[in-house]
Automatic annotation (TrEMBL):
Pathway: Glycan biosynthesis; glycogen biosynthesis. Belongs to the bacterial/plant glucose-1-phosphate adenylyltransferase family. GO terms for molecular function: ATP binding; glucose-1-phosphate adenylyltransferase activity. This is Glucose-1-phosphate adenylyltransferase. InterPro entries: ADP-Glc_PPase, ADP_Glu_pyroP_CS, GlgC_bac, GlmU/GlgC-like_hexapep, NTP_transferase_dom, Nucleotide-diphossugar_trans, Trimer_LpxA-like_sf.
Length: 420
């Protein structure tokens, strides 16, 4: 068994973020951007959570693999994450699928997205690799996971969530022994195995893996030579190690970051329009489940130079106000009202308009007299004067993307089709 030396292991680690996913379940929100580039929480993008966790954990070498519609994501990272300095032994590499191995192949899977960049990783000479998904919302100290990896002597350590067994069918699921050594890895099983001593719950993979770098390289080369592999960590690499080596489960509860008022371990896959809407609206709660005001574990993002939010007019029926809402900078709430809503940077609301349970992405304009409830509005949309959404389900479904839970996604092309 290897033992930690006491020096932070993060200093010898590189975080590698897999950020190439299509995010097709977010429908039109990912028509022009990858899922990790989707806006979240008023100012951030989804990828900022994994990157901020890495920085806050002490990791100073980061690579991000991109693929699907990556322009918005790359532009954001160039603006928000350009503070890493090579003279301090820091690095931030953006690694688009660039056909480095073969002129015929893009990234074939999550494992291939790392394999194709082995030479770039090797140039940084990290001792440990922390492989991350770039499309989840959570706060986690990867240093604690690194410590468990070293002290357990594992070949791979897999980040896991404890979930109700009936909900685990959508995940890769670990079957573990009493020491949380993984004995089998099942991808989306119909009958997930329970946890020893807790049969009603299962351990679901978070898509977070820790490896010794040289061992990871060996496994990636072996996997690349296997003609039957799909080049995927969850489907190929991890099950092989479980069978032929030692794979250790790391429970999220042991490294999640919670501010004093956060009562639960917060992790969300905002992969559907409903999940995305709910996670954003939850931030408007008096005591939200996710604390974005935690200065001890900040979520880093692009710093926009803009004016403060502004509320104008104070007469009956035309008063600028917000109730249980988050209003970002450069917003103007003019003689209108926002209730339990989240307005991203640069949103303008015209007089006599109202929004209720609305997630409004940057630089939208809400026309005078519009009434909107339970909506997600994509960036840059101009809502026509007097438009009503959220009161007639059939009409809403004929004009916009309406979910099973009654949330309407509104994009510019949908508004253009209205011809108003």
């Amino acid at each position: 068994m290897r033992m930690s030396t006491g020096q932070p292991l993060a200093r010898d680690a590189m975080a590698y973020v897999l950020a190439g996913g299509r995010g097709s379940r977010l429908k039109e929100l990912t028509d022009n951007r990858a899922k990790p580039a989707v806006y979240f929480g008023g100012m951030s993008r989804i990828i900022d959570f994994a990157l901020s966790n890495a920085i806050n954990s002490g990791i100073r070498r980061i690579g991000v693999a991109t693929q699907y519609k990556a322009h918005s994501l790359i532009r954001h990272m160039n603006r928000a994450w350009n503070f890493m300095r090579p003279e301090r032994n820091e690095s931030f590499d953006i690694l688009p699928a660039s056909q480095r191995i073969s002129e015929l192949l893009w990234y074939e899977g999550t494992a291939d997205a790392v394999y194709q960049n082995i030479d770039i990783i090797a140039a940084h000479a990290p001792k440990y690799m922390v492989i991350l998904a770039g499309d989840h919302i959570y706060k986690m100290d990867y240093e604690l996971m690194l410590q468990q990896h070293v002290n357990s002597g594992a070949d791979v350590t897999v980040g896991c969530l404890v979930v109700p067994r009936e909900d685990a069918t959508a995940f890769g699921v670990m079957h573990v022994d009493e020491q949380d050594v993984i004995t089998s890895f099942l991808e989306k099983p119909a009958d997930p195995p329970g946890i020893p001593g807790d049969p009603d719950h299962a351990l679901a993979s978070m898509g977070i893996y820790v490896f010794d770098t040289e061992f990871l390289f060996e496994q990636l080369r072996r996997d690349a030579a296997d003609p039957d592999s799909k080049r995927d960590f969850g489907g190929d690499v991890i099950p092989y190690i479980v069978k032929h080596g030692k794979a250790q489960a790391h429970r999220f509860t042991n490294s999640c970051i919670r501010a004093a008022e956060e009562i639960e371990e917060y992790w969300r896959d905002v992969g559907t329009v409903d999940a995305y809407f709910e996670a954003n609206i939850d931030l408007t709660d008096t005591v939200p489940k996710l604390n974005l005001y935690d200065r001890d574990w900040p979520i880093w993002t692009d710093t926009v130079v803009a004016a403060p939010a502004k509320f104008v007019h104070d007469e009956d029926g035309r008063r600028g106000e917000a109730i249980s809402s988050l209003i970002s900078q450069d917003c103007i709430v003019s003689g209108s009202i926002a209730r339990r809503s989240l307005l991203f940077t640069g949103v303008k609301m015209g007089s006599w308009s109202s929004v209720d349970e609305a997630v409004i992405l940057p630089y939208c304009n809400i026309g005078r007299g519009a009434r909107l409830s339970r909506v997600v509005i994509d960036s840059g949309v101009r809502i026509p004067e007097g438009l009503v959404v959220g009161e007639d389900p059939e009409l809403d479904a004929s004009r916009f993307r309406r979910t099973d839970k009654g949330v309407c996604l509104i994009t510019k092309s949908m508004i253009d089709r209205l011809g108003v």
